[in-house]
Model the fold of this input.
Amino acid sequence: MITLGLQGEVPKPGQARGWGAIRPELFNSWGSAHGRFLYAVAAAALALASNSRGTLAVALAAHLEYLHASQAGVAVEALATEARLGRRTAVYRVEVRSGSTLLALFTGTVHRRIGQDSSLSAGR
Done:
C-alpha cells in the first residue's frame, strides 16, 4: 500500500488545511495525479475540519468535481471551510489547489455524534 504522506492543520474550528506532493507512484495513466489522491487530500481536510469542534463527526456523503489536471511533482493543498453547521449535520466545501490552480471542488456532509467527543479540536 502506498503511503500518501499527507499533512494537515486546523487553524480554527470549522476550518482545516491538508497538503501533500504528487509523486510518480500517485499518477494515473495520463501522467497527472490519480483522482483517488485528490479525493484523499480533500477527505482528510474534511475529517480535520468536521472534527475540530470537539464533537465526533462521520461522513454521510461526499462529492468531488475534477476541474483541472495536475502536474508531476507539484504540491497539492486542500482547504476545508464550514458551509453550514447544524446540531446533527454539517456541510463543508473543500477546494483542492496546486498554487493558484483549482484542481477539484469537493463537498462533504457529516453526521455530528452529539455526546461523543472527537480526539481533535482546534488548539490541541
